[in-house]
Amino acid sequence: MADMRNYMIPGHRRFIEALEAGLSIRQFVQDHQESHPALADLYNDCIRGMDKFRKKHIEITVRYILHQAPKDEEAKGTGGTSLVPFLSTARKETQEQLLG
């Protein structure tokens, strides 16, 4: 994912870097979920929304990139990644962020 930043416009890249430099939202919510259970519910709703987005992204990628690629060539994503394994890993990592 870090390589993808080379393709971002500078403002987007700086935004991602600022998020990384700050506090972990997940850790904050986890630390306060006992006293603010609605916060944990909202956080999990956001993670589920991101998971839904990632699922749809995989579906669109398969439909419009993999199925359209020449049969003798492996379709590659931005940065030369193998599309489905890369996107599947990103989705799995998103699902792992749910709070129990």
DSSP summary, beta strand count = 0
Count, helices = 4
The amount of helix comes to 55-70%
Order of helices and strands: HHHH
- Rg: 17 Å
**Distance from first to last alpha carbon:** 26 Å
What is the number of independent domains? 1
Mean pLDDT score, rounded? 91
Stretches with pLDDT under 50, minimum 5 residues: none
General form:
flat
Task: Give a summary of the structure in a few sentences.
By secondary structure, the protein is mainly α.
Can you offer a commentary on this structure?
2% of the residues are buried. Helix 2 packs antiparallel against helix 3 (37-66) and helix 3 (37-66) runs antiparallel to helix 4. Helix content is 63%, strand content 0%. The radius of gyration is 17 Å and the shape is flat. It has one domain (2-95). It is built from four helices and no strands. The mean pLDDT is 91. It has helices spanning 10-21, 25-32, 37-66, 83-95. By secondary structure, the chain is mostly helical.
Give structural attributes:
100 residues; mainly alpha; flat; 0% strand; 4 helices; 63% helix
Strand and helix map with partners:
Layout: H1 10-21, H2 25-32, H3 37-66, H4 83-95
